[in-house]
Amino acid sequence: MNKVMELDQVMGKVHDGMSIMFGGFCGVGAPLTCIQKIAESGVKDLTVMAVVATYPGGHFDLAPLFANKQIKKFICSHVGTSPEAVQALKTGDLEIEFFPQGSWIEKVRAGGAGLGGVLVRTGLHTMVEEGKEKITIDGIEYLIEKPLHADMAFIKGYRADKWGNVEYRYTAINSNPTIATAADFTVAEVNEIVEVGDIDPQRVGTPAVFVKAIIQGNTFKEHKAVYHDIWASTGQLK
């Protein structure tokens, strides 16, 4: 039941051509240690799913994967925050599949829940509906959005116990809990690993049943320093 692993052990499961989901939103709540290790590994032809590309201005979180041209296809709701992704798109090294943000997360939720798809109205009668099935219910027309599922998911939590119960802190709860459910092998990077029973059950954001591996990332002190530096460098902090 002890799911604590070394990052090198997890990296042995990452290979060319696989699909990977990453939690976080514009770098907040992103599994930075795991992302950096994947960037260093050189694996390529990845299909990556994340809400947005990178922290505004790039040079952070997923940016190295775009810069290294390790991502073949990116499934997201927004990409303009990343100069690296935009450049890869311009040179033909990156294929992008866009979905409205609400549709994107619902597709992930459907993938985790074993649903055949979700019904949405966003995008009707626009280019978004091209190639998609439609259905009419009670006189209202919907698009059928198919589920998103990945070979691996990398999420970021605040704490986890050794069984894999994960606690989140503030806005890191963004896409992480949903993404955790929608992969064959979910890896949780956390600031602190504790004993079973140390996390109040009411504070568990992702139950252990969804998590296959726990990775020690930056300590919380190191975590705060990383974000302080990036926010200061981009003028978010004075």
What does this structure look like?
The protein has 238 residues and is of the alpha/beta class. It has one domain (7-231): Glutaconate Coenzyme A-transferase, CATH 3.40.1080. It is built from 7 helices and 12 strands. The chain has helices at residues 7-11, 32-41, 63-67, 83-90, 101-113, 176-179, 220-233; strands at 19-22, 46-49, 71-76, 95-98, 118-120, 134-137, 140-145, 150-161, 166-167, 183-194, 204-206, 213-216. Strands 1, 2, 3, 4, 8, 9, 10, 11 and 12 form a 9-stranded mixed beta sheet that branches. It has a 3-stranded antiparallel beta sheet with strand order 5-7-6. Strand 1 (19-22), helix 2 (32-41) and strand 2 form a beta-alpha-beta unit. It is globular and about 55 Å long. The protein starts with 6 loop residues before the first helix and ends in a 5-residue tail after the last helix. 40% of the residues are buried. The model has no long low-confidence stretch (mean pLDDT 94). This is Acetate CoA/acetoacetate CoA-transferase alpha subunit. InterPro entries: 3-oxoacid_CoA-transf_A, CoA_trans_fam_I, CoA_transf_BS, NagB/RpiA_transferase-like. Pfam families: CoA_trans. GO terms for molecular function: CoA-transferase activity. Keywords: Transferase.
